[in-house]
Write a structure and sequence with these properties.
By secondary structure, the chain is an alpha/beta fold. The protein contains eleven helices and eight strands. The chain is globular, with a radius of gyration of 17 Å.
Length: 252
């Protein structure tokens, strides 16, 4: 299957689905398209609540595309790529509608950032998480603010420093990243449908005002996340990172 980002609107519920054949990893164009679709739903008066999901039954999102990372040859290209994650997180933050995330599999790096930027996150009990960036010579600079906001500084540091260690879905729930976890996708989808239907019939103005309150203190993220993207864009050019990513790709 070819990569895609698609949107569907049903009974006030706008669903954004993304897919990439490499474990739902995220090339730059995929990130840009995802941000655009989220922004469109945010402006659509027919949409009251947004559900964000990935296709397939394995990984929710494997984070940055290693093929694209290793192809970055200058700081400008690095900034452009990592700005894609900034655009997605800022779109999720700024739309005046609650975003429900559906995590049906493991989340790595940027995938953890996307799960963290949602307003309410459902997951299956096999949906472990890992911030693996340091293991390949960079760091979770762009997604870090979203993850830290959700799980707190101590848990964020644990994820960042112990970059090769998976943390369980139960751990993620205890830290506040996952609101609810389920033993099956079917059970999870039923609960997502129930909550999204309730929200679709709730007061849009009240929800917009609540979301603004909930994200209070993040007003400077437009600039902050681009600044962080520049840090990652520079680090990805280092000899250490190039070798680390090449070594990782050989294992996959």
């Amino acid at each position: 299957m070819e990569p895609f980002v698609k949107t569907e609107i049903t009974n006030g519920i706008g669903t954004v689905t993304f897919f990439h054949p490499q474990s739902n990893s995220m090339p730059g164009i995929q990130l840009r398209n995802l941000a655009i679709e989220i922004e469109k739903l945010g402006k659509d008066a027919n949409v009251k609540v947004i559900v964000l999901k990935s296709d397939g039954d394995k990984a929710f999102c494997a984070g940055a595309s290693f093929d694209e990372l290793i192809a970055i040859k200058d700081i400008e290209a690095g900034l452009t790529f990592f700005s894609g994650f900034a655009a997605v997180i800022n779109a999720m933050r700024q739309v005046p509608k609650f975003i429900i995330a559906r995590i049906q599999g493991k989340a790595v790096g940027g995938g953890v950032g996307i799960a963290s930027a949602a307003d309410y996150t459902f997951a299956v009990d096999s949906a472990s998480i890992k911030l693996s960036e340091l293991a390949v010579g960079i760091g979770p600079f762009v997604v870090g603010p979203a993850v830290e906001r959700k799980v707190g500084n101590a848990a964020f540091c644990q994820l960042t420093i112990n970059a090769t260690e998976w943390q369980s879905a139960q751990w993620a729930k205890e830290k506040g990243l996952y609101a609810e976890i389920f033993t099956s996708v079917v059970e999870m989808d039923k609960s997502i449908q129930v909550l999204s239907t309730k929200l679709a019939s709730s007061n849009p103005e009240a929800m917009a005002m609540l979301k603004k309150v909930m994200w209070q203190g993040t007003e400077k993220w437009d600039e902050l996340l681009i600044e962080r993207a520049g840090i990652s864009g520079k680090l990805v050019l280092s000899e250490f990172t190039i070798k680390a990513i090449s070594k990782f790709k050989q294992k996959t």
